[in-house]
């Protein structure tokens, strides 16, 4: 039954996404977006227990204000005002700073399958709507807030879900910048969704709910996770590096300031990944607890080296 529910979601939402991408009318795009949101609810509540039902209700109630705001903006405002009004609402649906609180709160009460859906498939149609109403000033402010958020969070990571959330939010800025510059943002997000799904599938298959369980897992599992983190971080020769280079080539000519922000963001999330990777390859859990200061020193020493690799 669970498999049928999941497959049914994929089939129906794929149809909704295709219709939304092929339509130029804003109301049709908005309608397909709302249908994809409603289609997620059976996945969230399929277990039938109180915590899952609460998660589904919480997701619906958190999405409803932004949906009403988008609908009202399309009706009441002319195009310039609608563009300015729609952008924060779409950022809220994407879970981007400073509107990320609902996504972090919801992630604690849902499984990895539902989380990866919210962080991949559910972002395609909002990005498609943003293609016609984009405002670069908001993304710059949001990116700066995001950088401080990563720096504040990287010292207190104890579970896998915050890492997935930080990775997904950071990755979303690349297709945002790409669509603003007129590039092929859809190919980027589909490719990164495949990478992200492969990493999440490993976590789900091995039942690695916490960072300590990941450290204690088999070496092959740790090595596989490390390769995916390097891929998401954009380290050559992985696919993520070439995807980011393609985006930078698109935006660097006319949007130099935005490309600098993206590079800074990449270095920051790369620092978080390295902080996770080093214990997976070198240390066991007892050494981590007894030599935390030495590990931190090693991280600071290796981060510039990883930054240089990004541009080789």
Number of domains: 2
- Which band does the percent of strand residues land in? under 5%
- Derived from helix and strand composition plus strand pairing, the structural class reads mainly alpha
Give the overall average pLDDT: 77
Instruction: State the total count of DSSP E strands.
Output: 0
What does the radius of gyration come to? Answer: 20 Å
Which tags fit this structure?
single chain; 312 residues; 2 domains; 16 helices; 81% helix; 0% strand
Model description:
The chain has 312 residues and is mainly α. It folds into 2 domains: 1-133, no CATH class; 136-312, no CATH class. Helices cover 81% and strands 0% of the residues. The protein contains 16 helices and no strands. Helix 8 runs parallel beside helix 14, helix 9 (160-180) packs antiparallel against helix 10 (185-205) and helix 9 (160-180) runs parallel beside helix 13 (239-251). The longest helix has 27 residues, at 50-76. It is globular and about 60 Å long. Residues 285-292, 297-302 and 304-312 have low confidence and may be disordered.
Quick take:
It is built from 16 helices and no strands. It has 312 residues and is mostly helical. The chain has 2 domains: 1-133, no CATH class; 136-312, no CATH class.
Secondary structure blueprint with pairings:
Blueprint: H1 2-22, H2 26-45, H3 50-76, H4 79-94, H5 101-107, H6 112-119, H7 124-133, H8 136-153, H9 160-180, H10 185-205, H11 211-215, H12 219-233, H13 239-251, H14 256-281, H15 285-290, H16 292-309
Helix pairs in contact: 1-2, 2-3, 2-7, 3-4, 4-7, 6-9, 6-10, 8-9, 8-14, 9-10, 9-13, 9-14, 10-12, 10-13, 12-14, 14-16
């Amino acid at each position: 039954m669970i498999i049928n529910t999941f497959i049914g979601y994929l089939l129906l939402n794929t149809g909704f996404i295709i219709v939304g991408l092929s339509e130029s009318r804003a109301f049709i795009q908005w309608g397909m977006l709302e249908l994809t949101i409603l289609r997620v609810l059976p996945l969230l509540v399929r277990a039938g227990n109180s915590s899952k039902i609460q998660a589904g209700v919480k997701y619906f109630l958190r999405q409803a204000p932004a949906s009403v705001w988008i609908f009202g903006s399309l009706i009441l405002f002319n195009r310039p005002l609608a563009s300015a009004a729609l952008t924060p609402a779409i950022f809220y649906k994407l879970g981007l700073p400073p509107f990320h609180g609902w996504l972090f709160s919801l992630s604690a009460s849902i499984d990895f399958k539902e989380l990866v859906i919210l962080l991949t498939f559910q972002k395609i149609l909002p990005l498609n709507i943003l293609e016609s109403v984009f405002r670069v000033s908001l993304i710059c402010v949001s990116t700066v807030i995001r950088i401080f958020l990563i720096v504040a969070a990287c010292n207190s990571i104890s579970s896998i879900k915050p890492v997935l959330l930080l990775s997904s939010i950071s990755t979303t800025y690349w297709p945002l910048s790409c669509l603003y510059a007129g590039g092929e943002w859809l190919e980027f997000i589909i490719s990164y969704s495949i990478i992200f799904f492969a990493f999440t599938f490993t976590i789900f298959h091995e039942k690695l709910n916490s960072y300590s369980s990941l450290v204690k897992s088999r070496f092959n599992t740790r090595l596989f996770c490390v390769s995916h983190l390097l891929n998401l971080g954009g380290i050559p020769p992985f696919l993520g590096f070439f995807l980011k280079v393609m985006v930078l080539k698109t935006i660097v000519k006319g949007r130099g300031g935005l490309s600098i922000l993206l590079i800074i963001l990449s270095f920051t999330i790369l620092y978080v990944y390295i902080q996770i990777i080093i214990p997976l390859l070198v240390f066991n859990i007892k050494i981590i607890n007894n030599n935390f200061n030495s590990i931190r020193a090693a991280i600071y020493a290796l981060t510039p080296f990883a930054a240089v690799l990004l541009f080789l």
